[in-house]
Amino acid sequence: MSTALPRSRPALPETQQRAVRRGTVLAWWTLGYLAVDTAILFLIKGNSQAMQAAWVQDLMGMVPPLAFLIGMRVARRRATTDHPYGFAQSMDTAHLAAGGALLGFGSFLFFESSLTLVQGTRPDIGLFSFFGHDIWHGWIMIAFMFITLFPPLLLGRLKMAPAKILHNKALYADAQMNKADWMAGLATIVGITGIGLGFWWADALAAIVISLDILQDGYRNLRSSLTSMVDAVPKSLGTSEPHPVPGLVNARLAALPWVREVGNRTREQGQYFHVDAFVVPHHTAETTADDLLMARELCRDLHWKISDVSIIPVRELPPLLRVDTAEPEDTAPPEL
């Protein structure tokens, strides 16, 4: 029941440390790849709406890895008097900014592409001369977009494992966006091919499909970040199922001989949890400060995600508390 500031977070377990290192390296790889990709796309996109949409998507694709890198850096700062809970929630703030940016640019791109389709603006993809031969510029676009189908798909798959180990929403959203980028690339190829076959509207339609993909990414990022910031019940990453850690805390406290009933409120702060555990003792008068301190330390040591625990003795549980005391089948993080 101490009112002191939360203790400094202990060093992460080795598995989580490897996940942080791998996620950081992959985020930098993503930024490097996208920097080269967007530069080339800018040079070859021409008047194609689909190519311009793909360029915007790759440009906005830099936001999630930047959010992860900045959020992780700020989250490492120690708690202060002005910020007694520390800075772990900076990850959610960065995640929120990424989602808002994606939604804004996706909406703009959808409006512009739809206007082009309604007005019937026909894209002009010309020819260029290569050693005396005239070559359609669209072939260069298609070849480049085909090559760029594979890096984001690979990066997305590689990021998924560390994202799940760390329960890191920013890295998980970045991985999902990478995995979806190949669909945008494929839509761009279809749109440019349509222009070559005489279907001018295929280009604008492909751009609309890409803008819808950006909007979906933005909505998913925004919703995921807001669930943490409004203190919703923590969910397992990528699912609607409750995270097992609150149930694990309940089970550990319920096993103590002096505890009759238990429930907790768990607050998600970035990739860490702060737990307010309410316990109803069998005999209130016999419950000592040592009992509460021991219970607190037991809970803190249950899982690396638990940043701090408050043990609150009560005569009856507050309403709406989760009272699931079943031991989770598997609370150990997966290995890389």
TrEMBL record:
Compartments where located: Membrane
Membrane topology of this protein: Multi-pass membrane protein
The entry's keywords: Membrane, Transmembrane, Transmembrane helix, Transport
Coiled-coil residue spans: none
GO molecular function, one term: monoatomic cation transmembrane transporter activity
GO cellular component terms attached to this protein's record: membrane
Pfam families, A to Z: Cation_efflux
Ranges of residues in domain Cation efflux protein transmembrane: 41-229
Membrane-crossing segments per the record: 25-44, 56-75, 96-115, 135-155, 182-202
Primary subcellular site in the record, as a coarse category: membrane
Name of protein: Cation transporter
Lineage summary: Bacteria, Bacillati, Actinomycetota, Actinomycetes, Mycobacteriales
